[in-house]
Specification:
Elements lengths: L4 H11 L9 H10 L6 E6 L3 E2 L2 E2 L3 E10 L5 E4 L14 E6 H4 L3 E2 L21 E2 L2 H5 L5 E11 L2 E9 L6 E7 L6 H19 L6 E7 L3 H9 L7 E7 L8 E4 L7 H11 L5 E4 L8 H4 L8 E5 L21 H20 L2 E4 L20 H17 L1 E5 H8 L3 H13 L3 E3 L6
Parallel strand pairs: 7-8, 11-12, 11-13, 13-16, 14-15
Antiparallel strand pairs: 1-10, 2-3, 4-5, 4-9, 6-9, 10-12, 14-16, 17-18, 17-19
The site of zinc ion (ZN) has 3 residues, from loops.
């Protein structure tokens, strides 16, 4: 399967106009669009359902919103940008003077052409977000405001895609789907996750994979509360977000810090010549906060490019279709694919000829590769694999200790296995 940045970008483009929030039809419409790529199990969790210290909130939907001047012109129009309305605004209709209206207006004076993204999930209020230029154009007169929204009992919606593998052990891939027209912050992660799922569906899998597409914070909290009895199956996980900007890759370790996923991501990123950053876990960011809360402490790291809050376009209308690049999306996807391939290939073997070195030359394994430097590394990889394959060390352990790229170690193991010099230590099959 060949994935091009253009395929990922097309999905971002398709999802961009939808007005999403933590609940409501925007989330349903988004999941429906993903269903043309992967079959999803869509769950609806009723308002009021308890989830640990939280409750599923009321469902929010919006049809229209505007500010009209006295000539009846819509000077702020929800249909121009869904960012104009503070997410979860309660309905409002009336006329009020500028002085009163100002208390409900949000702008970014430092970026006068951008609309900020604001939410108010937990306080029932209303607000408009506008460019600072638009704000400066307001006159001391009366304005007609309308937010035609509903905030009432309904449900929280999320989607799940489970791919069964040879073992019950699971890899969790999670992304948030609750931001309106913002590309890097939410759509890039959704696109990369969707195309990873599509790719994995076509290949043989050792692990089972669980993809979850859910609203930030309340989504994973609700999901964890409903799946507490089976989260022990999650052996590795990644939260995907902010994967479409031009910045370098950033990996944030899981709370465990040295989990297999943490070591694998570092191993993979080192194999690419471009710059990357690895940072330690911190309890702020995306949904790793919930997966890595002390009561779960799951080995879930977070893969991004430029981290949240570290680029000026973050949570503004400038996080748009120009800000994300097909090449960055493709690069993020490829790195995720390599991470999962490495995870799949990280097995433990047992040397079948452990008493002294086997005679490799007789088997055509020694001096078999032309190109001296490459040959030397491949032969060194074989020696390391033979020596450390005592049923205790994984290929990742060997790659780290030998300081040889994982894929070279894996190639060596494959060749030795083909010559019956190695045998995989079997993992529990479901
Ligand atoms: Zn965000």
């Amino acid at each position: 399967m060949n994935i091009h940045g253009h395929d990922l970008y097309k999905l971002v483009e398709e999802l961009y106009p939808i007005c999403r929030s933590i609940t409501g039809n925007g989330v349903r419409q988004t999941l429906k669009a993903l269903e043309s790529h992967i079959p999803l199990s869509i769950q609806e969790v009723p308002t009021g359902t308890p989830a640990f210290d939280w409750r599923v909130p009321k469902e929010w939907n919006i049809h229209d919103a505007y500010i009209k001047n006295m000539s009846g012109e819509r000077i702020i129009d929800f249909h121009h940008s869904n960012l104009h309305v503070m997410s979860y605004s309660v309905p409002v209709k009336g006329t009020l003077p500028l002085a009163e209206l100002k208390a409900h207006l949000y702008t970014l004076p430092e970026h006068p052409d951008w609309i900020p993204y604001r939410t108010s999930y937990h306080n029932e209020q209303w607000g408009f977000c506008l460019t600072h230029q638009q704000f400066l154009g307001l006159h001391d007169e009366e304005y007609e405001v309308c937010i035609d929204s509903t905030l009432e009992d309904g449900s929280l919606t999320y989607g799940e895609y489970y791919l069964k593998g040879q073992v019950v052990d699971e890899v969790l891939i999670s992304c948030h789907i609750c931001h309106p027209s913002l590309c890097n912050d939410n759509l890039s992660g959704i696109a990369v996750a969707t195309f990873l799922a599509k790719y994995l569906a076509t290949r043989e899998r050792r692990y089972s994979y669980r993809f979850v597409f859910l609203p930030g914070t309340i989504g994973p909290i609700t999901w964890l509360a409903r799946n507490e009895d089976r989260v022990h199956k999650i052996k590795h996980g990644l939260v995907l977000a902010l994967l479409g900007d031009s910045g370098a890759i950033t990996y944030k370790r899981s709370r465990q810090g040295l989990a297999e996923i943490d070591r694998i991501v570092c191993q993979v990123l080192q194999q690419f010549s471009d710059r990357h950053t690895v940072v330690d876990f911190s309890p702020y960011g995306y949904d790793e906060r919930q997966y890595c809360s002390p009561g779960f402490n799951l080995p879930v790291g977070s893969l991004m490019r430029t981290p949240n809050g570290r680029f000026p376009e973050y949570h503004t209308s400038a996080d748009n279709l120009e800000f994300v690049k097909p090449a960055s999306l493709a690069d993020s996807w490829e790195k995720c694919r390599m991470i999962l391939e490495t995870l799949e290939g990280n097995k433990i073997y047992l040397n079948q000829n452990p008493k002294c070195e086997p005679q490799l030359g007789r088997r055509g394994l020694y001096r078999a590769i032309s190109g001296q430097a490459e040959r030397a590394q491949h032969e060194m990889a074989m020696f390391w694999v033979l020596n450390l394959s005592d049923g205790q060390h994984s290929l990742l352990d060997i790659a780290e200790r030998a300081d040889i790229p994982f894929m070279t170690i894996k190639d060596a193991a494959d060749r030795l296995e083909a010559h019956q010099l190695l045998k995989e230590v079997s993992t529990e099959v479901s």
